[in-house]
Design brief:
The protein is of the alpha+beta class. The protein is 39% helix and 27% strand. The protein is built from 6 helices and 5 strands. It has helices spanning 2-19, 36-42, 46-49, 64-74, 120-129, 140-146, and strands spanning 21-26, 31-34, 80-87, 93-104, 109-118. Strands 2-1-5-4-3 form a 5-stranded antiparallel beta sheet, with helices on both faces. A hairpin with a 4-residue loop joins β4 (93-104) and β5 (109-118). The radius of gyration is 19 Å and the shape is globular. The mean pLDDT is 89.
Length: 147
């Protein structure tokens, strides 16, 4: 029974590794592990990611304030939630909802664990709902909200 249970646990971990989009970094933000799911999401292999920072994924135009907020939150041993636009290895943009958890022993942050959810389709639907299909500019509903 014990052998069967440990085999099930290993199988479960393999499945989670394949379907979840996760990154693990050390306390300096250097990537030390990427799930198979994250490899498929980003287009980068683990070998290409390990030893780098998540900046390798940064999309041009990411607000400095967002990065500052992220770091100021997680170094205080708090969980950070937010949306980040990343760049696939091919160069195309994609959106993620991200949760970053500090990995802490008794009193020290040892690293960080990030769980990503791909929200690119939702962002595109919102953009389409707020813009005129012919001109691409904001439609009346969006302008009314802004005013």
């Amino acid at each position: 029974m014990i052998c069967f249970t440990s085999k099930l646990k290993r199988m479960r971990l393999k499945v989670l590794n394949r379907i979840l989009f996760t990154l693990t970094t050390d306390n300096n933000g250097i990537i030390i592990d990427a799930s198979k799911g994250f490899e498929s999401l980003s287009g980068y292999s683990s070998k290409e990611l390990i030893g780098k920072t998540p900046r390798i994924l940064s999309y041009a135009g990411t607000p400095v304030e967002l990065v500052d907020d992220l770091w100021s939150t997680i170094i205080q041993n708090k969980t950070w939630y937010g949306e980040i636009k990343n760049r696939h290895k091919s160069g195309r943009a994609y959106w993620n909802s991200v949760r970053i958890e500090p990995l802490v022993d008794e009193e020290h942050i040892l690293g960080y664990f990030a769980i990503y959810t791909n929200i690119t389709k939702q962002k595109e639907l919102i953009r389409q709902a707020n813009s005129d299909p012919l001109t691409g500019i904001y439609n009346r509903s969006k302008l009314n909200l802004l005013l």
